Amino acid sequence: MAAAAAAVGGTQQPQPELPAQGLALDKAATAAHLKAALSRPDNRAGAEELQALLERVLSAERPLAGAAGGEGAAGGGGGGPGAAEEEALEWCKCLLAGGGGYEEFCAAVRAYDPAALCGLVWTANFVAYRCRTCGISPCMSLCAECFHQGDHTGHDFNMFRSQAGGACDCGDSNVMRESGFCKRHQIKSSSNVPCVPKDLLMMSEFVLPRFIFCLIQYLREGYNEPAADIPSEKDLNKVLQLLEPQISFLEDLTKMGGAMRSVLTQVLTNQQNYKDLTSGLGENACAKKSHEKYLIALKSSGLTYPEDKLVYGMQEPSAGTSTLGVQGFAGATGTLGQADSSDEEDQDGSQGLGKRKRVKLSSGTKDQSIMDVLKHKSFLEELLFWTIKYEFPQKMVTFLLNMLPDQEYKVAFTKTFVQHYAFIMKTLKKSHESDTMSNRIVHISVQLFSNEELARQVTEECQLLDIMVTVLLYMMESCLIKSELQDEENSLHVVVNCGEALLKNNTYWPLVSDFINILSHQSVAKRFLEDHGLLVTWMNFVSFFQGMNLNKRELNEHVEFESQTYYAAFAAELEACAQPMWGLLSHCKVRETQEYTRNVVRYCLEALQDWFDAINFVDEPAPNQVTFHLPLHRYYAMFLSKAVKCQELDLDSVLPDQEMLMKLMIHPLQIQASLAEIHSNMWVRNGLQIKGQAMTYVQSHFCNSMIDPDIYLLQVCASRLDPDYFISSVFERFKVVDLLTMASQHQNTVLDAEHERSMLEGALTFLVILLSLRLHLGMSDDEILRAEMVAQLCMNDRTHSSLLDLIPENPNPKSGIIPGSYSFESVLSAVADFKAPVFEPGGSMQQGMYTPKAEVWDQEFDPVMVILRTVYRRDVQSAMDRYTAFLKQSGKFPGNPWPPYKKRTSLHPSYKGLMRLLHCKTLHIVLFTLLYKILMDHQNLSEHVLCMVLYLIELGLENSAEDESDEEISVDGPERCHDSWFPGSNLVSNMRHFINYVRVRVPETAPEVKRDPPASTSSDSLGSLQNSGTAQVFSLVAERRKKFQEIINRSTSEANQVVRPKTSNKWSAPGSPPQLTTAILEIKESILSLLIKLHHKLSGKQNSYYPPWLDDIEVLIQPEIPKYSHGDGITAVERILLKAALQSRMNKRIIEEICRKVTPPVPPKKITAAEKKTLDKEERRQKARERQQKLLAEFASRQKSFMETAMDVDSSENDIPMEITTAEPQVSEAIYDCVICGQSGPSSEDRPTGLVVLLQASSVLGQCRDNVEPKKLPVTEEEQIYPWDTCAAVHDVRLSLLQRYFKDSSCLLAVSIGWEGGVYVQTCGHTLHIDCHKSYMESLRNDQVLQGFSVDKGEFTCPLCRQFANSVLPCYPGSNVENNLWQRPNNKSIKDLIKEVEELQGRPGAFPVSISSETNLSKEMESVMKDIKNTTQKKYRDYSKTPGSPDNDFLFMYSVARTNLELELIHRGGNLCSGGASTAGKRSCLNQLFHVLALHMRLYTIDSEYNPWKKLTQLAEDVNSQLGSEEHQPEVPILYHDVTSLLLIQILMMPQPLHKEHFTCIVKVLFTLLYTQALAALSVKCSEEDRSAWKHMGALRKNTCDAEKTYEALLSFVISELSKGKLYHEEGTQECSMVSPIAWSPESMEKYLQDFCLPFLRITSLLQHHLFGEDLPSCQEEEEFSILASCLGLLPTFYQTEHPFISASCLDWPVPAFDIITQWCFEIKSFTERHAEQGKALLIQESRWKLPHLLQLPENYNTIFQYYHRKTCSVCTKVPKDPAVCLVCGTFVCLKGLCCKQQSYCECVLHSQNCGAGTGIFLLINASVIIIIRGHRFCLWGSVYLDAHGEEDRDLRRGKPLYICKERYKVLEQQWISHTFDHINKRWGPHYNGL
User: Fold this and answer.
1) Range with the lowest mean pLDDT among 682-696, 1023-1037, 1079-1093, 1795-1809?
2) Mind giving me the DSSP string for 1341-1405?
């Protein structure tokens, strides 16, 4: 009791040694008392008392130390820690509530919540929304609730699955526009929230600090500084598990709303509280210990250790300090200490920089705080510290984020986060779970840094930028290696090693993504661009990536290990270098920002210069090396481009000197040449990964950060450097210099002959791209977007999403072109037409596609852009093919066109110099040489080369200098020609310059040598040539060397004048073999004459070119003639000549002259051996092709008719079935073709033929309903689907009802089964010998490469049409159609026929095949019967009470026939109005199936006693004896029998082949029974009054002559007979429920009777059609009954005219009607006396089933998704990871969920067996895709929901709104009903029961 006194009684000190049980007081009372004490003005006493109580309750001594293994001890005894924790929590809750109930307290606090922000925090995989229209920050996100409450119609939004977690921004105007707020957060509700009463939260302010301190103590206790710097996961998780309740409690507090949050903020940020509680000075030993642990943990938190350990790994260069060290870190913030303990560093140092020597760097830093050990001043700071130490436990993260709506907290927390930033990254780097940790870090940081105001504040107050850049540098330092680029030995450059985990696993991304995020804020980016120190450090950081992942070309062996590090390298450059660059660029848009650009460019150039020095670069790149990573070049290029384009900066003011430009161009040019080498297969020994790099470099996500800046930089260099130097550099880099000779043979020292052609193509293509690309040289953003889009659309039609993906956009989302922004849509509609999604019958589903408009092909198709943007070379071809097709189709050009020449946007004035490339002699010499070589048919030249040469000439003509005058013959003409090929540098004038002799160096074997003039003895002739100096010799390499020297030695005086090339004849390629000799060629051509000769050569006619202007002077006046815009080489030559003539009168004159001279004949082609070989090859190929065509044609004729029928269930009527149609009735035996051995013949006993069939169990019939209202998929809790009204359910109920009261064996004859799990047999119509089939199966079994089907289960594909099948149905020998039998007139009376039928049924085995003798045929029949049985599950075959009874098999067999007939009826649309033998009929195998079934049915004899035939056709002698003895269950009354089942039983019991007259007789007899049933059902349905009225009315007619054929008489008789029993009696009560209150008119009664009988007539007609081959007549719906009745022979022909038609006229009673009706009714009477209710239910058979349908789906997919993706599974009550819903019955299932697995079957597979007998159709909720399960296989069917652009969105990756596509859903339903999933869908795989 003392304890009670202590707790309640005021001031005395409670004794600390009280037992814990003492605390189990009335907590509420204590709390109330304390609250009262604290409410007094003088509350010191109360406060102390509370302190003491808390001290005791929350003491951290007991629980955790034990549990977390503080000293390795085990948990403290039985219920130990857990129980104590709970107790403490209980106390806290009581105290907070101050004696009231905790729930009430929560509600009270919530009332004071000023909910201005939503702030809902979610974790990974949560489904959220992002609206770009409303977002200010690109990271903006909304929870589903806020999104749907707001109005976002017409906005650009999408749904997404959160990757790292996030929080809802609704209500936060810093991140999103207020118009997008939802209804709850629109009102700034803080104004009308009442003030919080002081006493409500008073207790919280006292209790919470202690509680949080207690939590921190636990965290301190639990953490053991791990020995090897790796926290053992187990321990940490254990601690966290124990703390789960505490943290959850805090989390709940944050959810109470604003009032509670502000209290928490006070507690967390109050520094005094923290000091008092945690100083560790108290006398409490436990507190001391925890404080010590805390200090130890803190030790490692700085980036550095104490001074003496300050280290930085770098190789020590001889000169003392490293260049990097001095230059790089002078302005760096903070010394980059090696963070991890130094001994650990030593262990792994060896694998880093060789032997890394430590260099002490100056430790004078700008901001020491980053380096130092952390100091904590508040709970918040220490909580975050432990959150980091424990690697961001999810609960803690959620708690810290839940507090963010509190503004004060947000600022404090952001500062704390920044303070811990370096420590966070350090922990991340060491973490094992870096992925999860990264996600959690970003989850926090994205909330803080997306807010511009906040980001600016911490940048200013906490040096956020410095911290980030320093930490980034620090992170990368750990994985630097020496660069091997250029000078392997002496390189001082270090690069990141892409193989390191840091890069490979992308561990740096949280950091980089934060950095990009803050740079998107203008205020922050400005600070960065103004801070020179930061820029220097940043360039330093970028230089770590310069030249990483160097590739060295393998020349001998194939590399054995293909490293995949290039992924890491490209990702790193894109994320760590390019994205921050785009971020910075987005703030350099206006003139005022020039200064920023100058800063960046300046430091970028400095960094580049240092890089060139570090790698010892002089002038030649090292051979056979390439790196795709030059981020410094690209920074430089992009800022230059921006400066000229947006900031009006003068380009020359930011360009370096010529020498630097020459260096700058080398590496980008090296990449371009390497691309060509890679595509020429010169790098093939480096494996596939090098191709991967080449592709990634130009791929849409990378190209605008990689290849575009590179080409732009080369364009800038080209516009400023000497053009001759540049051109010769290009050809030298591409290694084709030696090829550019007039000689027909040459030696190439650097390139194998096989690569020459493609390298030459590469070089020319590169020049064309360089000269015609205008992406950064003057195009506006819209023009760029348009060009990109046209290029992509020309390659292929594209879907909207793939187009968005393929158009390169600046990776920074703020850059202007936001995907889906208006300009994108408007450009798209301008250049493309939308092709709606179509569905081909083959089952391939097309998406909605965009295809280029005709005028785009006509005017905008730009091959250059296409070549630049193709990842795969085949795309260029595809674009050309599409272009060709367009020209053919539009009649613009019939042949094979060349790529069209496209006019370019005009150049920005800054880049005018680029065009000098086109007007330099070097290029002209190259063009001349190539034209000459092509004309002379030298080897290794291609049409592509010619195309590019002409393109370059045309570019030159388009861009010629304006001031060129025609008569520009300079004075020093003659002298100038001495040492140079061409007089000037203008292409227009050089084109007409004739070149006479050329001196070439050729191998001695070359033909030119032997061709020396025989007059060589007369030395003067030759000598005169040499002396005249007209023979030109030219060496590109020498030229280039000279130019380079010239530029380097600029100091000499004459270097300023343009030096003309002095050609040295002596020069020869280095290392070339000595047997080169000089020969002189006589050329006497000019470019113009070569072009004209080319025209002749291409057209194959002499003198084919005739100047067009001689006929039509107009040509010269308006040059843009459409005739020349599309065409092949001939057109191109004509276009060029016309342009040349236009540009100068001289050219025009010379062209005319050349054409006048009779052109010399083109040299005939000499066929070399190699060419002969290829010609032979061609011929052989041609022959082979023809052979193949022949074979294919034969095969096609076989296949044609099959194909037409196979694809579609109902195709047109006119195709010829592949099957066994007999041509003339005379043929007695059917002939079959075997598709395996190709022989034809009848099917015989010993060698039977069979039909290829697919047997499958089906429950489609069971899904028919009698309700017109469609079943909808439930999308709310209220809607549910009840399966009671399906056909299957109704039949089940009926059978079990019969089995309850009647004899089992008789019940099994009274109904059919197979509504669920019935066996459906379908065939493709092809036949094969059964023995051939067996050997075919053997061969399939041995062939291991199986596609999705299992041979062991007997599955195969039809050898001819490849349709899926699993059995063979033997064809019965003999005629297919019994023509001879049913031609006889039917003159026997019905009495005789009835007798015959009865006798035939009694005769056992009256089959031509005697069953006793085992023939091959009977064996096959048996085995196929086994197959049929095994197709469905046992539960669908066994319905008898005694399992395995023969009655079961009997029932099963005739039900198979029933199933197939009913299904065919459904395929025909549920009625036979369309008539005709539809395709389904043609490919039907019912005839064969009937034979097999009949054979087996006749093995069972029905006891003649019970044969229903007798009951139908004879009157019993004594009515009473029928009742039999009471104790036996009676038989089923005949009126309860299902008439269709009776029909099948009767027919299958007859010996086959059946005679038509017997068939008709059976039908007539059964119709009488059916009609009687209809009358009985009608009588039960109507009311008492109606009944008595009819009874009297009919009784009057009973004695008329045709009474037996009027329904009134019969109905009245039935009523009077049935009223003898109790059938109508107990109706008083349920009368209303049964009866529809409509009055029955004669018409409605007649209609009822006809509807009742129609299903039977339809099935019977179908059966007759299959057995006897009669056609079905087509008719209107109203007359279906009469037409079918007469077709079946029920209705004598003369009756048809009678109107209105009366169904009773079809009756043909075998015995007096009234007698037999009496007899039938008597059976019912005796039953209803005991069970009136059931008796009535059994009479009313519902026969009007509607067609089966899948569930109706809602219009918008979101409706389904929102309901189901959070829905819990009914079986395991969890939210499934992959929820799915069955589209047949609406059941919700877990896909692949192990939780719902039963006997190794997962839930979907199980459901597919129960619901569809092995066929399941499921909609996967999270993927919007439909999956089909068929037996043991499954396939993805596709989606029936498409977005606004007609596209699927599998896995909801894009998250755009999806809408139902009715056509696709119809197709799905059609495939389900027609059972054609197996045939139409191609990609099946086994599911191993795991779905």
Assistant:
1) 1023-1037
2) HH-----S--GGGT-EE-TTT--EE-EEEEPPSS-SS-TTGGGS---S-HHHHHHHHHHHHHSTT
Residues 6+ apart with CB under 8 A from 1546: 1397, 1401, 1508, 1509, 1562, 1566
Beta strand spans in 811-908 (E): 832-835, 849-852
Interaxial angle between packed helices 522-530 and 594-614, expressed in degrees from 0 to 180 and rounded to the nearest 10: 50
Residue 1483 CA: distances (Å) to CA of 1323, 1360, 1797: 6, 15, 40
SS3 1725: helix
Find out whether 199 and 205 touch, Cβ atoms under 8 Å. no
Q: Contact at 8 Å (CB) between 555 and 685?
A: yes
- HEC string of 1216-1273 equals CCCCCCCCCCCCCCCCEEECCCCCEECCCCCCCEEEEEEEEEECCHHHCECCCCCCEC
302 or 377, higher pLDDT: 377
d(CA 824, CA 493): 43
Mean pLDDT value of segment 995-999: 82
> How far apart (Å, rounded) are the C-alpha atoms in residues 1112 and 1013?
45
629 contacts 545 by C-beta, under 8 angstroms: yes
Q: Could you tell me what percentage of the chain is helix, strand and coil, using 3-state DSSP and rounding each to the nearest 5?
A: 55, 5, 40
The DSSP secondary-structure symbol of 574 reads I
Which amino acid is residue 764, in one-letter code?
L
| Nearest partner of 142 among 113, 156, 124, 122, judged by Cα | 122
Report which of 308, 321, 212, 217 is spatially closest to residue 269, judged by C-alpha positions.
212
Determine contact, residues 758/678, Cβ cutoff 8 Å: no
Report yes or no: 764 and 867 within 8 Å, Cβ to Cβ: no
Instruction: Report the alpha-carbon distance of residue 1096 to residue 1092 in Å, rounded.
Output: 7
Cα maximum dimension of the chain: 144
CA distance 1825 to 1831: 19
Give the model confidence (pLDDT) of 133-167 as tens digits: 888 888 889 999 899 989 898 888 889 888 888 89
CA 1816, 1820, 1826: angle at the middle one, nearest 5?
55
Per-residue tokens: 1762: 């929102």
CA dist., res. 1458 & res. 1161, Å (int): 85
306: Cβ–Cβ under 8 A, 6 or more apart, which residues? none
1818 three-state secondary structure? strand
d(CA 431, CA 507): 10
Contact 143, 122 (CB under 8 A): yes
Task: Tell me how far CA of residue 1136 lies from CA of 192, 390, 423, 935, 1124, in angstroms.
Answer: 80, 74, 68, 17, 10
Could you give the CA distance from residue 1334 to residue 1772 in angstroms, rounded to a whole number? 47
State the amino acid at position 994 in one-letter form: F
Distance CA 1400, CA 1307 (A): 24
Average pLDDT over residues 1552-1556: 81
The DSSP annotation for 783-812 comes to HHHHHHHHHHHHHS-B-HHHHHHHS---SS
Entry pTM? 0.81
Per residue in 757-801, pLDDT (tens digit) is 999 999 999 999 999 999 999 888 889 999 999 999 999 999 998
